[in-house]
Predict the structure.
Amino acid sequence: MLLSDRDIKKHLESGKLKITPQPDLSVQLGPCSIDLRLGNEFCVFQHSKYPYIDLKGCINVEEIMKRVQIGDEEAFVMQPGEFVLATTIESLEIPDDLVGHIDGRSSLGRIGLIIHGTASKFDPGWRGKATLELSNIGRMPLAIYPGMRICAFTFETLSSPAEMPYYKNPRSKYKNQNTAEPSKFATEDIVCPCDDKDDAKDKK
């Protein structure tokens, strides 16, 4: 069951759901969602550094991205077709019996700004800032600014509290993230050709 505005307020007032810094409910709270604001940090691909991303290769994605920090009044311009990672100002702590969902705002979608690619679900027990997967699918460059309402979160109750919430799961890769985090796909159990070569060298 999706939480209504009154239930979101109850969860915030009780401390069961935590959003830091405290949101301005008169501006950020909708009938069944709460808006979060765009932060100051972005991760952008350095396209000329590598010709492509090889998911079975030995390249750490963090090596082909750079962090860009901008001022509160400074614009970040997204070119058509550009994809960047960003983060929210607010940090979330979701209890073990709720799941969060992130959506883009309709007003931004209507000018071509997409907020997430696939990662719309925030598991029970999530703690940290949300990394946004921003894409400009329009035909014109977009100037976006820190502090603007960038996304909307909804919360849904589970049938029972999660047995293994996100913060307890040893496989969770983005625990307590405080910045825009690049993909940690390389930490998953995939066979890397370089590892095979290293093993062969060790055997010699």
User: Anything to note?
Assistant: The radius of gyration is 19 Å.
